[in-house]
């Protein structure tokens, strides 16, 4: 039984068995006409292929082709593909009566009355002809008319090809282009707010107040009492010569406070030990004073820091440094809170090992929650604050020597245009020159069109149309 007879019998059986169910229970249309139409389409069969054989394809449909007959490894012949079977999306097939696209394929009302300048190779090769011809695969050369693409870099893409290659475009707009720089940071003491308590003469620690590391102290709060022979000698001279300015200057040079000097002048006595008080409000970072110890001149007894303002130090990579400016807003995030400050200092050197530069952000710390060496996340807002002409990053084609975009000129035409780019951020690039708001640029598959544009320009320079009666090269 032939395949057609078997299919006919099957369709008839299905129609007979399903007619009552379809019409009675489903309430739908009678299936017999549907099967009849399906059979009619099948019986008609595919349209017969016409035209010459243009190439041969693997019999299993694999993307393997040949210009001449050949066989597979298992001895099967390649399938001959005729001209009518070769799909062409870039131009319509104008039938010339032989079932294949003729030399004027693509001619129509749009090109009526126009003069053909020459014919170019359909595969983009540097080959032209003054008369219609075919290439080695039987494909017609494409006519080029007067006025077609005066710019050799302009590319015309058919709608079918635009769809197949996934070409997409976007409107050029004005927008704020900013790119936050995020770097790790560390909380540090403000160096200007750290004070060391020390004597300027050799002394013995007589008494230490109940103050330890980590305690907060107030300005003028007693810390330690010391006995210093040199200070006592200067005090005795001051009491003996109350009007002598040199004696007062000497004891002041030994860093004795004005309050202690005034008390000695009032009582006219020299105390056995001199009390040293906290010079500022702050946190005791270090206590070295121990009762009974001898302290040499300049030895640190206490180290106190004012934490009302704090620094955050962050290392910015060298490639991000160009966008950092003094005065830019910065957000500092520490566990449990977020603070806002400004970039105060950009240190004038680059770390040789990390290729980064340190910046400093100053922050108020009235409640003292920011502590030295605490870890912080720093985010610096870089870029313009005013809207600028910008395009998606994917629209910019960079060759190293230039930057360009592809302009969508309408009617499937695309042309490259050189641009000058600026800042980048949030997926967009600032365009400083070369574009204006409202134009459309290609954002996807643009490298394919750019490659074709470059090829077309190269071919235009290498393969100028012939001017004599000779055939194509």
TrEMBL record:
Keywords: Transport. Transmembrane segments: none annotated. Residues 194-305 form the CusB-like barrel-sandwich hybrid domain. The keyword Transport applies. InterPro entries: Beta-barrel_RND_2, BSH_CusB, CzcB_C, MFP_Cation_Efflux, RND_pump_MFP. It holds the Pfam family Beta-barrel_RND_2. The keyword Transport applies. Residues 92-136 are annotated as: Disordered. Residues 310-382 form the CusB-like beta-barrel domain. Residues 389-449 form the CzcB-like C-terminal circularly permuted SH3-like domain. Belongs to the membrane fusion protein (MFP) (TC 8.A.1) family. This is Efflux RND transporter periplasmic adaptor subunit.
């Amino acid at each position: 039984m032939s395949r057609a007879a078997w299919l006919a019998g099957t369709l008839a059986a299905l129609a007979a068995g399903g007619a009552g169910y379809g019409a009675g229970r489903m309430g739908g249309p009678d299936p017999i006409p549907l099967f009849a139409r399906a059979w009619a389409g099948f019986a008609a069969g595919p349209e017969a292929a016409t035209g010459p054989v243009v190439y041969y394809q693997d019999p299993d449909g694999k993307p393997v082709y040949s210009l001449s007959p050949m066989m597979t490894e298992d001895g099967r012949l390649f399938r001959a593909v005729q001209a009518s079977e070769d799909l062409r999306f870039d131009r319509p097939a104008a039938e010339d009566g032989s079932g294949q696209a003729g030399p004027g394929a693509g001619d129509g009302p749009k090109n009526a009355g126009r003069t053909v300048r020459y014919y170019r190779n359909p595969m983009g090769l540097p080959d032209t002809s003054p008369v219609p011809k075919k290439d080695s695969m039987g494909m017609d050369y494409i006519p080029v008319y007067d006025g077609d693409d005066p710019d050799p870099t302009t590319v015309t893409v058919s709608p079918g090809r635009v769809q197949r290659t996934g070409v997409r475009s976007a409107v050029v707009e004005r927008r704020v282009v900013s790119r936050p720089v995020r770097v790790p940071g560390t909380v540090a003491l403000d160096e200007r707010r750290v004070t060391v308590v020390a004597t300027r003469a050799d002394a013995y620690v007589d008494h230490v107040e109940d103050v330890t590391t980590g305690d907060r102290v107030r300005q003028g709060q007693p810390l330690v009492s010391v006995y210093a022979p040199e200070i006592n000698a200067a005090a005795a001279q001051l009491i003996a010569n109350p009007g002598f300015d040199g004696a007062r200057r000497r004891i002041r040079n030994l860093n004795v406070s004005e309050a202690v000097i005034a008390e000695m002048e009032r009582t006219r006595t020299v105390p056995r030990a001199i009390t040293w008080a906290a010079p500022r409000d702050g946190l005791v970072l270090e206590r070295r004073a121990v009762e009974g110890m001898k302290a040499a001149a300049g030895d640190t007894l206490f180290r106190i820091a004012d934490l009302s303002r704090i620094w955050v130090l962050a290392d910015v990579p060298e490639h991000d440094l160009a966008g950092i400016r003094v005065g830019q807003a910065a957000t500092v995030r520490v566990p449990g809170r977020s603070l806002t400050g400004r970039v105060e200092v950009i240190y004038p050197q680059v770390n040789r090992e990390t290729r980064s530069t340190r910046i400093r952000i100053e922050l108020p710390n009235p409640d003292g929650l920011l502590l030295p060496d605490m870890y912080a996340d720093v985010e610096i807002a870089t870029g313009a604050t005013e809207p600028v002409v910008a395009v998606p990053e994917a629209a910019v084609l960079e060759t190293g020597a230039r930057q360009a975009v592809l302009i969508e000129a309408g009617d499937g035409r695309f042309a490259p245009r050189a641009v000058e780019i600026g800042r980048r951020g949030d997926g967009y690039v600032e365009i400083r020159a070369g574009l204006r708001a409202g134009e459309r640029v290609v954002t996807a598959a643009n490298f394919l069109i750019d490659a074709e544009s470059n090829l077309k320009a190269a071919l235009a320079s290498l393969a100028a149309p012939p001017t004599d009666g000779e055939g194509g090269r």
